[in-house]
Design brief:
five-stranded parallel sheet; 5 strands; alpha/beta
Length: about 130
């Protein structure tokens, strides 16, 4: 599927999780770049605008909510969809993410490859339809 060549930035402090996401999404033709932490993620966002960001919340340098707020404050990045991928899976966190912060989706770790692919494809389809 050529439409799956979307560029996805995964901002996550665990390199193994970035590798796993790269494998899962790469099989479907997605181009995945990783950033190990919020600071590196913001640097990569400044260099190249992705089609989608997969964002961990709990990172040691700059947490995911701070990265998200900086993205939404930037005119060049505010329309980039964000899927939160986090081990912080309390229902209140999901409510905060989806309804208050308005992230595009919220995936709890551990997740299945099918769950990740379905979320990414759904969010990218929604973006394309806008």
């Amino acid at each position: 599927m050529p439409e799956n060549s979307a560029f996805i930035l995964c901002i996550e402090d665990e390199p193994e999780m970035i590798d796993l996401i790269r494998i899962i999404l790469g099989r479907r033709g997605f181009i995945v770049s990783g950033a190990t932490g919020g600071r590196e993620g913001l640097e990569k966002l400044a260099q190249q605008k992705p089609d989608l960001v997969l964002l961990d919340l709990m990172m040691p340098d700059i947490d995911g909510w701070e990265v998200y707020q900086q993205m939404k404050a930037d005119d060049g990045l505010k329309d980039v969809p964000v899927i939160v991928v986090t081990a912080k899976a309390q229902s209140i966190d999901k409510v905060l993410g989806l309804h208050i912060a308005k992230v595009d989706d919220y995936i709890a770790k551990p997740f299945s490859p099918e769950e990740l692919l379905a979320s990414v494809e759904r969010v990218l389809q929604k973006k394309k339809a806008q």
